[in-house]
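Good morning C.,

I know you're traveling, so I'll keep this short. The sequence:
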Amino acid sequence: MLSNIKAVIFDLDGTLIDSMWLWKQIDIDYLELKGHALPEDLQDAIEGMSFTETAQYFKKRFGIEEDVADIKDTWNGMAKDYYLHKVPMKEHAGLLLERLKAGNYKIGIGTSNSRELVGAIADKYGLGDYCHSIRTGCEVERGKPFPDIFLKVAEDLAVEPSECLVIEDIPNGIKAARNAGMKVCAIYDDFSKDQTSEKRRLADYYIESYAELVLLLEQAAV
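The C-alpha cells, ready to paste straight into the viewer:
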C-alpha cells in the first residue's frame, strides 16, 4: 500500500474524526426549523459536496430564503459545539499521524467541511503539527467526486498524484481520489457501513482500523 508513496492525504469527517453522525442530526434539526422533514435521499444526494455546494443545494431544493452565506453560518454555529466537545478522533488516528511524521511522509487533509469548523478541529487536535496542507472543498471549483480538492493538496505538498495515498470513508471521496490518479484506501466508518461493499469495490485497499496501517509502518521501520 505504501510502496512509492511520498504523501498521505486524509479526508476529515468519518476518516480522521468520528463525526459523520452529527451532520444527519444537524440536517434534521435545520430542516425542522424550516418546516421540512428529512428526505430519505438527502444524505446520498449531498455526499461529497463542499460546504458551499451543500448550502446551495439546500437553498434550491427546500426554497430557503436566506442566502448561502447565512445558511453556512447557521450550520457552523450548530456544529461547532459538537466538534469541540462531542467529536473524537478515530481510534489510532493520532498514533498513525505520529508514525507518518516519523517516517517523513508528507501529510495533507482534503475535506468537504467548512474552513471555520476545520480550523476548530485542527486546533483541538493539533493537526497543524502533522499536516503540511489542509484544504476545504470551498477552495476549489468542484467538490467530490471531482478530483479538485486532492489535486490541490498534492500541489501544496509538491508531490505527483501517483505518489499520494488517500484515506477516505465514503464512495464519492474514493472516486475523487481515483479521479485524481491517486492510490486510495477506504476505512470503515459506522455511518457508511451499508456502503462497505461499494467502498471495497472502488478502493485499492480497505482497512477496518488504523491499527493496520500503524502496523505496516512499524514493520517498514524495522
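Safe travels,
E.
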